[in-house]
Amino acid sequence: MRAATSDLPLTLVEAGIVAGDVTILDRITLTITAGPPTILIGPNGSGKTTLLRAAMGLVSLSSGRITWGDRDAEAPAKTAITFQRPIMLRRTVAANLRYALAAANFPRAKREERTTELLTLVGLDGLDDRPARRLSGGEQQRLALARALARNPAVLFLDEPTASLDPYTTKAIEDLVRLVSARSVKVVMSTHDIGEAKRLAGDIVLLHRGRLIENTPAKEFFANPQTEEARKFIAGELLV
Description:
With about 240 residues, the protein is an alpha/beta fold. The protein contains eight helices and ten strands. The protein has a domain at about 10-85 and about 155-235: P-loop containing nucleotide triphosphate hydrolases (Rossmann fold, 3-Layer(aba) Sandwich). The strands form two sheets. It has a six-stranded mixed beta sheet with strand order 6-7-8-3-9-10, sandwiched between helices. A four-stranded antiparallel beta sheet has the order 2-1-4-5, with helices on one face.
């Protein structure tokens, strides 16, 4: 895996997305740099998923701009994203991964070896021939991570990868996030789970109603939140 260097920082400048009369992202200015995971938190509907999709180039801004490495450009090739409910191809586990490697132009002669490596990395070794759609939810999420890693990304976006998973599977996914981050891949991940944010975050980005509320190192955020919204969210209170 490669270091996230030239493609970063990722910067949103007054980034806004409006759909009809609804403001989904409200003029967000944010810089994401290399280093430990950046964790997006906030209640449902706060804009976390939309921000990830916009950074990946999957949705267009209504206003503002996004830059990569201080350049106005689309998301670089060495980026990848997984979604809360990943879509599995009607193929085996190994075939799903081989398809991802082919799409990433990985050398054909090395695809089988790389498939084995990635399945071992995400804990799916031995499941090569199982239909992907018959995997459990946690196994599908791990396969989705393997497919994303097939792109050899420098930046990896994860949209609530542990939502609705049991504690054992959640820990397995979190361990993968730590492993990937330790290999110099920049992880930008959304979650509504405060405990998970504490365990994984280098930096915290708190969103509410499409607005950026706080953006600070995780230790500072949890020890000394600067806004009433942050204090309430940490305490488990409803944000309205």
